[in-house]
Design goal:
globular; 42% helix; 19% strand; alpha/beta
Amino acid sequence: MKSEILVLGSTGSIGYAFTENLLSKNIPVTIIVRDVAKAKNLFQSFNHVEIIKGDAQDLNLLKQVAADKKYIFHGINYPYNEWFGNMDVVTNKIIEAASLNKAMIVFPGNVYNYGNTPLIKEDSPENPCTRKGALRVAIEKTLRDAADAGKCKVLNVCLPDFWGPNVLNYGIKPIFMNALNGEALPYMVRQDIPHQLVFTKDAAEIMVRLMQRGVQKSYENYNYGGQVHPTMKGLLNRISRLANAPEKIKLHPKWLFSVLGIFMPIMKEVKEMLYLFEGTVLLDDNKVRSIFPDFKETPLDEAITETLNWFRENQL
């Protein structure tokens, strides 16, 4: 069976979950990756995956592979300090590739567009309070303009912070690695307020369902918020218990990121995002839940255990 779906960023956090979801349903997928060995390791238990070595910034390759695709998943991401000049550029290239077959671009959005807005709905005004938030607004406007111009269709699914297997960013990996090593779990600024997080496998299921459902308009956006945890202290201690580790948390204060930012460019970029950890920002996802009333999140202990096992098998 020939693949109709091109996934970009398949070895990253959310792209991995999206690809795995499709392959688990025996849906053929084509992926472009820089590290073929890593991709083969991640997807070794699945058939129906076509692995092409390359870079999404290679427009000629992108157009060649995308020419007959109906869907392109835009899971490309860069470290914060490499966003400018990369995220916007690669998005324009993906649009150009999608325009060849008027494909649907499936884009995992985030809350940065809305700044310090306590409750975000699909029609909430964009009000970024950071440089990266402003860039996300510009990128999504580029996608919306391309859809309005008839170049492609766009399905934008806004997500909060995510966690799960193969989520290797600075905020998540140390939590699970430290739990497995019996060490204190690191977290940022505050542990005593509600925080919304999404398990990547649940986010992937929602995105795949929406993709298969199709869009009525050229550009559609949905929120999916996952679960709201009353406090991060409760969640972190739950992770420790399931890892048979002591319930210990190491809280990184805000001032620390100012110091680290002097020496580490990425920490300077992290500093401007700390508003998301000083207060509670929530996505209202009633719209998508009403579309899929049968959808249920993975039980929390099951999700934590699966993530711990993945890190144990792949990172220790």
